[in-house]
Predict the structure.
Amino acid sequence: MSAAVKDIEYYARALRAPRVADSYRSLGDRAREAGWSHEEYLAAVLSREVAEREASGAALRIRAARFPGHKLLEEFNFDHQPAADRNLVAHLGTGAFLEEAKNVVLLGPPGTGKTHLAVGIGIRAARAGHRVLFDTATGWVSRLAEAHDRGRLPQELAKLRRYKLLIVDEVGYIPFDQDSANLFFQLVSSRYEHASLVLTSNLAFSRWGEVFSDATVASAMIDRIVHHAEVLNLTGSSYRLRNKTRTQLQAQ
């Protein structure tokens, strides 16, 4: 082993850049064959290191987000859900709304793809380098209630504001009592014009008063959510039940 090779491998370890140690030989052979300049060779080695680091970081952020499954926007069935605006979904996939602290609200009956779109948007955001966290509406309230009981609700809300995106799934499936509604309102208020939310709900906004036990609180919450938001109304039957006949459904 030459002194130069030893130096490269030492520097790769010192810089914690293991892909440099893996790629410098193969890229060196290609550089000699193709007549690359020194600058081109160095750029190729560093590019591979950066690409691998970004891919590894994205995988870590996706795992940390606690998504319920790995659902991609590319896999969404627009044929089954024609109400979904393809151009708007593609735009949301760019993550531009995150830079403006905008929200996304996905409304529609069960099985129409709301969670799929929410997760797909979240995965795109994580791949772009943003911190994302997913939970159901009841899960978020439980988290805030625990922080409140420990006297650390302000600290918990401040911690959550450091996430570029929070995804709140299943708003409306289980009604909240007054205390839970107030906690959820504080979550929405703490992120208003600071950071983004993606929310899914099976209920139209006009029925959110039923969920939050107070029409006034619901109205104030909706006002903050939709002030800077993209709202998608999904329609139709459940994708999960697409292969079931009416007789099968009635028998269940």
User: Anything to note?
Assistant: Strands lie at 103-107, 132-136, 165-171, 196-201, 229-233.
